[in-house]
Specification:
The protein is α+β, with helices and mostly antiparallel strands and 281 residues long. The chain is 27% helix and 29% strand. The protein is built from 7 helices and 13 strands. The N and C termini lie far apart (38 Å).
Length: 281
């Protein structure tokens, strides 16, 4: 496994600049023969895809999706419209391999990008499936994305408790994916930018093995992103490594920033992410 390293970049935002630091890792795990996850982490886009539908099919789906999104980051033109056009192309790429894919082939996609086009910088999360984006702010860890899964629908309807969901037989069944028989419109959430924010973007290979508390523990113990992703990966493998595991840790550092543009005090709090986040289209 290649050595994990932290990358940093200072970026201009309205009113000043931000220092972003991040690290990413992906691992096959201990029970799977191949890694169907794919990851891309480069300013301004940080995303994880978890493929499904057979060894080759899942790899094709996740890799095609990431490959279609890379040019957006390289050009800096990351918008919901551009993302959805890229995903529509990825769906065609997946369908172009009928020998390895079918209607059950697809991939999750989740991540964040930094939008600096307005009067103030904002993070935008995007999500299809059950990979996740977490935000750690003011000592609290918040799951920003909502899983597109049968289990989540049962929880939302009150028919299943979160504790019961942990071992539910339909735990791996998702209700939305990037694939030949699925729509390609992600959910979006817009978030204020705050100094000290830490994002974790991960496939369910991590959340099957670590609780939210466990994720926060390893973040608290490891201020460097590379150390944090390595510690979480090691713990997930030690706990069983039942699936492919992919993790990005992204830190928002101090920089030459004006408080009017980068807000420290309007963070979504644990159990109430709606106060300073809005869906965007």
């Amino acid at each position: 496994m290649p050595e994990v390293s932290t990358q940093s970049r200072t970026v201009d935002v309205p009113g000043g600049s931000l220092k972003l630091s991040w690290a990413a890792v992906t691992d096959t795990g201990r029970r799977r023969e191949v890694n169907q996850d794919a990851v891309f982490a480069a300013f301004p886009l940080f995303v994880v895809a978890d493929g499904m539908g057979g060894h080759v099919g899942g790899e094709i789906a996740s890799a095609s999706t990431i490959d279609r999104l890379k040019p957006l980051a390289e050009s800096g033109a990351v918008t919901p419209k551009a993302i959805e056009k890229a995903l529509a192309k990825a769906v065609k790429d997946i369908a172009a391999h009928p020998e390895a894919t079918d209607d059950g082939t697809g991939t999750t996609l989740t991540g964040v990008y930094l939008d600096t086009s307005g009067d103030a910088a904002h993070w935008v999360t995007l999500n299809i499936g059950d990979s996740r984006v977490y935000l750690v702010r003011d000592g609290s860890i918040i799951q920003i994305t909502t899983d597109h899964s049968v289990v989540q629908e049962l929880i939302a309807s009150g028919r299943l408790s979160p504790e019961e969901a942990e071992n539910h037989p339909y735990g791996n069944v998702i209700t939305r994916a990037v694939g030949p028989s699925e729509g390609v419109t992600p959910d979006y959430v817009r978030l204020d930018v705050a100094r000290g924010d830490r994002f974790v973007i991960c496939s369910d290979g991590l959340t099957k093995e670590l609780t939210d508390y466990g994720i926060r523990h390893f973040l608290d113990e490891n201020p460097d992103p590379a150390d944090a992703v390595q510690a979480m990966l090691d713990a997930a493998l030690e706990n069983g490594g039942r699936d492919n595991i992919t993790i990005i840790v992204l830190d928002v550092g101090d920089g030459d920033v004006h408080d009017d543009d980068i807000n420290d005090d309007t963070a979504p709090r644990s159990g109430d992410a709606s106060g300073s986040s809005t869906a965007v289209r």
